[in-house]
Design brief:
The protein has 613 residues and is an all-alpha fold. The chain is built from 19 helices and no strands. Helix 3 (26-55) runs antiparallel to helix 16 and helix 4 (65-99) crosses helix 8. It is globular and about 75 Å long.
Length: 613
């Protein structure tokens, strides 16, 4: 971490921990997101390990049913909202301004607020462990399990309030990146010259700002049911628990694409670079991403085929669920065509990208089987669903994100991760993922429910569960090797130079790590794969590009100054939410802190009047 601090140091008058608490630099905020999300990835992995050890044997009693439900709930919630989503946000922060030729995001202070709100919301939810009131109703928390008669302590309040704060963070980030991409592209970077990763970031951000208000409505109603005597989801009082399912899945299925589209964008940058040829069918990949974002709103009720929607509604969602596989297939064929005939370099990043495609295909094929309502009735709430979900989100999102880590690591450190250790990481991840989750297809079709905490040996599920638990340890070993490789690279990794992969994107035209202002002069983009165009023209003229853009005195370039107000507003927000768990007076105090923070933030000059602030 010290090395990263050194390479991103800025002469602001702040130093040490205070410089990180007040930073508005998109690169530093990206690192904060990345390290925090990886920590929660490890926590979610430990929670998964507890479940796998409990299920490794029949009639096991390693943990009791209550603890298993807590692990089930927190594992799913942590991995989705506190690991994969913020890991994507880390890439948005690190890459987007560089890839579009900008010096920062549109709203640097809002960017800082989104990180602190994320961190505080995640800590609020996990503080439930400290008071032994851990959420236990499942990561989708269906009514009526979440109501006071069935969850009498504060566990579900921790869950609902923590998610609401995380939603505020996501909305702030979503609006910020939409404005950044629309308004701050370098001259000449028309929409159809944007890298695919930028397109997927834009679509993801639009989905974020449209989807999170839906789940926020449901969470507010749940909080009011539990704390203020309303009855939105209580049938005995005229409420409807199916309303919660609609609200959750109207958000939940766009959420699937919020999780997978960034990974699709990452591999769309990796494949051309290591195939030594432009991305095949660029317009088709872009428009298929747009179609996926639009159709994601039309398939939510395939999660509800067993609740009795009626034949017409079921038929409609069967059709839309099958149709949404078409644009996904378009992307897959274009990625394969990009590799076809290319001069492929099987780097660690390329292996993770290929692994992403292979595993995502398996997840997509099992997803098609869910679209058939009769077969879905057998698969519903079994481990077949768990297998499908993890092939999409682990084999898909997480493999794609690791492809991005190995691809862009040199850009932000100036060093290379060991390819030998990286390939060990890949193969352990790839093998471990299949050993863990592929058997779940069979145990699910054999009838094993997804929430069961133990089972009898008479069912014949034991050897498949033992295999899945063994796969968990293979994955765990892969994570350890990645951490070792990361630390070794930071300490004594080989220098990478500014463009180690001969890549096409704008971000590779500047030094590694980037200066605090990113670009001394905003580039004039000449086409898709702009840096390839520049390098080929320079080589044809007999003057090949071997050095990045030269540095200039950062004092000559306007950059936003650090600010503590985003941290104060986020702190007030978490007090406001946490007060509902303890005493309403704390919520009132939190509201006052938020108001003071907003006023201070609004009256703060965009740049410092003196070197101290």
């Amino acid at each position: 971490m010290a090395a990263i601090t050194d390479v991103l140091a800025r002469p602001t008058g702040y130093s040490g921990i205070w410089s990180w608490l007040t930073t508005v630099d998109h690169k530093r905020i990206g690192l904060l997101y990345g390290f925090s999300a990886f920590a929660f990835l490890l926590i979610g992995g430990i929670e998964a390990g507890v479940m796998r050890m409990q299920l490794s044997q029949a009639d096991n009693s390693l943990v009791d049913p209550a603890t298993f439900n807590q692990m089930f709930t927190m594992h799913g919630t942590t991995m989705i909202f506190m690991a994969i989503m913020p890991l994507s946000a880390a890439f948005f922060n690190l890459i987007v301004p560089l890839a579009i030729g900008a010096r920062d995001v549109a709203f640097p202070r809002l960017n800082a607020f989104s990180y602190w709100a994320f961190l505080f919301g995640a800590l609020l939810m996990h503080s439930s462990f400290l008071v032994n009131q851990v959420p236990d109703a499942g990561w989708f928390s269906y009514a009526n399990l979440t109501e006071k008669p069935f969850s009498g302590n504060d566990a579900m309040d921790f869950w609902a309030l923590g998610l609401q704060v995380l939603g505020i963070s996501s909305l702030a980030a979503g609006f910020n990146f939409i404005v950044t991409i629309i308004n701050m592209r370098a001259p000449g970077m028309h929409l159809m010259r944007m890298p695919v990763f930028i397109w997927m970031t834009l679509i993801t951000s639009i989905l974020l700002v449209l989807a999170f208000p839906v789940i926020t409505v449901g969470l507010i109603e749940l909080t009011m049911d539990r704390n203020f005597g309303t009855h939105f989801f209580i049938p005995a009082s005229g409420g409807d628990p199916i309303l919660w399912q609609h609200l959750f899945w109207v958000f939940g299925h766009p959420e699937v694409y919020i999780l997978i589209l960034p990974a699709m964008g990452i591999v769309s940058e990796v494949f051309p670079t290591f195939s030594r040829k432009p991305l095949f069918g660029y317009p088709f990949i872009v428009f298929s991403g747009i179609v996926i974002g639009m159709m994601g709103w039309a398939v939510w009720s395939h999660h509800m085929f067993t609740v009795g929607l009626g034949s017409i509604a079921t038929s409609v969602f069967v059709i839309t669920t099958m149709l949404i596989g078409v644009p996904t297939g378009v992307k897959i064929f274009n990625w394969i065509a990009t590799m076809w005939g290319g001069s492929i370099t099987f780097s660690t990043s390329m292996l993770f990208a290929i692994g992403f495609v292979a595993l995502f295909i398996v997840g997509g094929l099992s997803g098609v089987s869910h679209a058939v309502a009769p077969s879905d009735r057998q698969q519903q709430d079994t481990y077949y669903i768990v297998a499908h979900l993890h092939y999409v989100l682990f084999g898909g999102s997480l493999m794609g994100l690791f492809a991005g880590v190995y691809y862009w690591f040199p850009k932000f450190t100036g060093k290379l991760i060991s390819e030998k250790l990286g390939k060990w990481h890949f193969w352990l991840f790839f093998i471990g993922m299949n050993v863990t989750f592929f058997p779940m297809h069979f145990v699910g079709l054999n009838g094993m429910p997804r929430r069961i905490y133990t089972y009898s040996s008479d069912y014949g599920w034991e050897w498949l569960n033992m295999l899945s638990s063994a796969g968990y340890f293979i994955i765990f070993l892969g994570v350890i090797i990645f951490m070792v490789a990361f630390v070794r690279a930071m300490r004594n990794g080989r220098p990478s130079g500014h463009d180690p992969w001969d890549a096409p994107g704008l971000e590779w035209s500047i030094s590694s790590p980037p200066p605090e202002y990113n670009f001394a002069e905003i580039p004039q983009v000449e086409g898709l794969d702009h840096y390839w165009i520049m390098k080929r023209r320079a080589a044809a003229e007999g003057n090949p590009i071997t050095r990045p853009e030269p540095h200039v005195d950062p004092r000559t370039i306007h950059m936003p100054s650090p600010s503590y107000w985003p941290l104060i507003v986020a702190f007030g927000t978490i007090w406001l939410a946490g007060g509902l768990l303890t005493h309403y007076a704390l919520s009132f105090m939190g509201g006052i802190i938020v108001i003071i923070g907003i006023v201070g933030w609004g009256n703060e000059p965009p740049t410092a009047r003196d070197p101290q602030h």
